[in-house]
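2024-03-11 09:14:02 INFO worker-7 job=invfold-0412 stage=load source=structure_tokens
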């Protein structure tokens, strides 16, 4: 039974599944076999990407994981002097709800979640580690999408919307992948917030080269999700603090401060300044698990530079952003401040369930929203109404005042 009964639909913009070993390998074409592999290193399984052992995910089998919401107190009140391991607490064995949609629906009912976007966990390591071989990236991403569709579908029971990945190095292949996903019911797609690798280096996906892809998304009526990932910024930080690869679960103080939210901030800057939002005014982007602290700084930069050189912008930049972008603040951010900045209709919530940095009980966010000063209508919009309207899903929740539980029609 949910921890509270709400009289409105809840649409969680950020849930995750944990991939098994075969997620990246089962559907690889024969000539790509062995590019992704797993090896035993002193009794621990590690993922190997093109003969390089990666520590990006410490336990890439996900057979044992941190408990959902294990770091909630840490994000609310700090570590209290505890080590990272102490903050995480006792791990747990993966349960069926982390691995398949039928079991996940039961958990969603228990959590009071009506709809969710379902993101992969392991996929974010692929593109950056293979950026010198665009064809290979496309092959591996398609293999992952085939596994995702076989296991989770892209629209499960009208409630779980898994996010097939679209990689953009070769635009024609990206369009083919998008069409393949749409034919199988995809309601959104996942694009990495990062420069696009290519045969001659990287480039911005805000340029006209990528308009056919953005136009296809608009024509299909789907938003594009941009979830925090390995966006390649370790190469810049390594100039200051040498390291081998980006390790999201072993951050240093320097890297946390220096990188901040640069990947998503630079991504949105590119989409605005390089004209994507102006040429494609109906495009809708969901910023997921990137927090919201970067938005005020970005708006300040937009205002400052636009005042000096308006002729170099395709349109007023903040207006373009507010039209096209939905922001999911971190649950510990102030949602009221973000609503005042970008408009309540563009603020959504994501619990990051079942990751340890997320919320163990997502709908308890309602109390925080009320404490921030959001009125009832604002709470409804953030908790679900905005995404219900964007995805045009029917409200399947039937509330009976004499029954203290949700009944799914």
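2024-03-11 09:14:09 INFO worker-7 stage=emit residues=409
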């Amino acid at each position: 039974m949910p921890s509270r009964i709400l009289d409105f639909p809840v649409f969680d913009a950020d849930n995750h599944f944990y991939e098994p070993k075969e997620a990246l390998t089962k559907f690889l074409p024969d000539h790509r076999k062995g590019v992704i592999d797993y090896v035993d290193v002193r009794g621990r399984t590690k993922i190997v990407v093109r003969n390089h052992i990666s520590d990006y995910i410490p336990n890439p089998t996900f057979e044992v994981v941190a408990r959902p919401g294990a770091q909630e107190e840490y994000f609310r009140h700090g570590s209290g002097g505890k080590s990272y391991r102490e903050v995480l607490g006792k791990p747990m064995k993966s349960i069926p709800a982390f691995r398949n949609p039928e079991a996940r629906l039961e958990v969603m009912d228990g959590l009071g979640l009506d709809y969710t976007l379902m993101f992969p966990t392991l996929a974010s390591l692929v593109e950056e580690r293979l950026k010198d071989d665009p064809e290979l990236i496309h092959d591996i991403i398609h293999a992952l999408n085939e596994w995702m569709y076989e296991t989770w579908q892209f629209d499960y029971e009208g409630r779980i919307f898994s996010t097939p990945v679209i990689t953009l190095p070769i635009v024609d292949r990206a369009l083919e992948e998008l069409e393949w996903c749409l034919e199988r019911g995809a309601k959104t797609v996942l694009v990495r917030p990062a420069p696009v690798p290519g045969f001659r280096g990287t480039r911005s996906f805000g340029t006209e080269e990528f308009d056919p892809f953005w136009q296809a998304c608009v024509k299909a009526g789907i938003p594009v999700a941009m979830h925090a990932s390995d966006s390649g910024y370790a190469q810049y930080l390594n100039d200051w603090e040498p390291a081998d690869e980006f390790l999201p679960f072993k951050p240093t103080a320097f890297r946390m401060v220096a990188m901040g939210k640069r990947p998503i901030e630079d991504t949105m800057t590119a989409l605005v300044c390089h004209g994507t939002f102006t040429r494609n005014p109906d495009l809708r982007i969901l910023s997921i698990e990137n927090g919201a602290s970067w938005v005020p700084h970005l708006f300040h930069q937009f205002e400052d530079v636009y005042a000096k050189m308006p002729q170099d912008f395709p349109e007023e930049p903040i207006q373009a952003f507010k039209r096209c972008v939905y922001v999911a603040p971190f649950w510990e951010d102030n949602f009221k401040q973000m609503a005042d900045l970008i408009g309540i209709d563009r603020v959504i919530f994501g619990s990051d369930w079942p990751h340890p940095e997320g919320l163990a009980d997502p709908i308890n966010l309602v109390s925080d929203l009320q404490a921030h000063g959001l009125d009832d209508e604002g709470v409804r919009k953030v908790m679900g109404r905005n995404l219900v309207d964007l995805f045009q899903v029917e409200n399947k929740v039937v509330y009976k005042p004499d029954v203290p539980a949700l009944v799914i029609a």
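2024-03-11 09:14:09 INFO worker-7 stage=report msg="DSSP finds 16 helices and 14 strands in the chain."
2024-03-11 09:14:10 INFO worker-7 job finished
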